[in-house]
């Protein structure tokens, strides 16, 4: 039996970046998710009320692929007060033929950040209007930055807007996006300004009340909502979901529990329809945007197929390039 | 931030054995499970039909305990044909205060074997008749051996019986148990002989049809059924469950899906009662055996609290004793 490869964040960052390769493997994973034979159990989730923390475990098996990842994703939101990052975790890669552990990727959440932003790029690739002059982001955390960098890979906007409740955070985020993309990036005065001036918007907040309102929507617009990934979180008003020409999501069974679909259904919308999944649109099994003038929304809660895809990309590169520590079983 | 401790099976075997310490920490975990504040999500389970494999993920948080384990437990049952063990896996230990990964225990399933056998010993401690001259095991795999070694810690029997459909397997198992316990260990001619001659029986098979029949039961008997841990598996006939003076289990919510309780309820038994859990009996919240002459059954499907308990024992010992490889984050 081969040794188990142990790799830390420093070595993983040398191998995997938020680039076209990452977007392509995540796109292929969504495509596979719409096909036959994917096994993706519901997310395992555990709350640590005393510590303002949670841990999610995600996994998926893609048919024909010889390994799969189990991702452990803790979020402890008082950590910054201790000088520690909120998000951490690792991915375990196992053989889909024998169950043997192949690698432990001690990524501290880095690969999750990459695969989450890459999914935003996949949504933009398939659903955003072809021409995006201005893109916008509501939220100014790590994903705010990474989603905008990923969006620029697919729709190379020349101007961007950032809004966050804290002006300094928005300013710092805008500077980072400008540096990474070369676009002119400004701080917006309100979230409505972000939506009304943009053709592509990403929401990346932990909000528990809808931010984007129905009367902010306009033609020639795509919104990717990726902040809501737990029951109780929401960023898009239910009547905005209903007013869009198209609502799509990463996984219906998951979004009706923890995504924007939950609030929309609770408000009486989309009750008798099964919305299309992003993978079905990629595969041509469902209709996506049909005209530039349309308004589309894509709801991303995060799926295990993305984790398996990015972990396999990391492992392929590591095996070609060398870093990582072989550890005897 | 401290380094992450990476430990392989060889080093874990030096620190954790199937002994009274292991039984005591698992007993404490069951006790905690019956109290307030335990968070134990349902088992995450994934099937690999093409490879005759499955992967289970288990976890639990015990209040007042500063770390917890997430256990990844693959079982690929064609592996022996490849010269590989069927069971493998690892445990990840995380801080319950910050979510930071503290250790990765590359145990290849060893700690699972220990905590599973230790749970059998806990069941024997609280439910077996005080005097056990003869103990028996149905099944001759690794757990057949380990359950009998664990049972001997609590009820030091002088004679034991082993039955397995394959005589050579039963013979090899009997020799191993004799060597470990010093008891006289014989191969039984049929499973009924094991039950009728023993005061303590453990069933450790992957059976999908009941083996132990109601008319084999007798006074002064305890049976621990630990083979059924998935929907469709069963070792004890439904009317045997109904005929016993006491049916207890590790977790009702789990056993009604994957344990013996499922078949019993499907056959119309125990439908309007909530059976006692082992932890409730330990804690004195529920009644266990009340007379030596009774017949009791304990149904163990395996719980995340056992994993957290044994992983913490391993980590405590490792921090005291030294082995393991610190790995930079």
Number of helices of chain A: 11
- Helical fraction of chain A equals 25-40%
Shape of chain A: globular
How do the strands of the widest beta sheet of chain A line up side by side? 2-3-4-5-6-1-14
CATH fold naming of the largest domain in chain A: Rossmann fold
Name of the top-level CATH class of the largest domain in chain A: Alpha Beta
At the fourth level of CATH, the homologous superfamily of the largest domain in chain A is NAD(P)-binding Rossmann-like Domain
Roughly what fraction of the amino acids of chain A lie in strands? 15-25%
What structural class is derived from the secondary structure elements of chain A?
Answer: alpha/beta
- pLDDT average of chain A, as an integer? 95
The CATH architecture assignment of the largest domain in chain A turns out to be 3-Layer(aba) Sandwich
Oligomerization: homodimer
Listing every helix as H and every strand as E from the N terminus to the C terminus, the arrangement of chain A reads: EHHEEEEEHEHEHEHEEHEHHHEHE
Number of strands of chain A: 14
Which ranges of chain A are low-confidence, i.e. pLDDT below 50, for 5 or more consecutive residues?
Answer: none
Distance between the termini of chain A: 8 Å
């Amino acid at each position: 039996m081969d040794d188990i490869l142990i790799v830390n964040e420093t070595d993983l960052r040398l191998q995997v970046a938020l680039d076209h390769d990452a977007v392509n493997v995540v796109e292929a994973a969504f495509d596979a998710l719409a096909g036959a034979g994917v096994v993706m159990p519901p997310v395992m989730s555990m709350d640590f009320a005393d510590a303002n923390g949670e841990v999610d475990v995600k996994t998926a098996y893609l048919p024909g692929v010889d390994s799969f990842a189990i991702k452990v994703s803790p979020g402890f939101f008082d950590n910054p007060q201790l000088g520690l990052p909120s998000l951490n975790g690792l991915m375990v890669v196992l053989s889909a033929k024998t169950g043997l552990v192949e690698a432990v990727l001690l990524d501290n959440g880095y690969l999750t950040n990459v695969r989450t932003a890459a999914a935003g790029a996949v949504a933009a690739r398939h659903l955003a209007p072809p021409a995006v002059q201005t893109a916008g982001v509501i939220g100014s955390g790590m994903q705010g930055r990474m989603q905008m960098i990923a969006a620029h890979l697919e729709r190379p906007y020349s101007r961007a807007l950032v809004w966050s409740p804290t002006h300094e955070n928005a300013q710092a985020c805008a500077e980072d996006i400008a540096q990474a993309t070369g676009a002119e990036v400004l701080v917006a005065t309100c979230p409505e300004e972000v939506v009304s001036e943009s053709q592509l918007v990403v929401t990346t907040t932990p909000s528990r009340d809808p931010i984007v309102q129905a009367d902010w929507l306009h033609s020639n617009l795509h919104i990717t909502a990726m902040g809501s990934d737990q029951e109780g979180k929401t960023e898009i008003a239910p009547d905005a979901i209903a007013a869009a020409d198209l609502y799509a999501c990463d996984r219906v069974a998951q979004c009706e529990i923890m995504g924007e679909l939950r609030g929309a259904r609770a408000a009486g919308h989309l009750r008798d329809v099964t919305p299309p999944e992003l993978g079905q649109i990629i595969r041509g099994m469902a209709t996506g945007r049909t005209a530039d003038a349309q308004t589309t929304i894509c709801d991303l809660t995060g799926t295990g197929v993305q984790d398996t895809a990015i972990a396999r990309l990391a492992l392929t590169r590591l095996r070609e390039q060398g870093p990582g520590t072989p550890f005897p079983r």
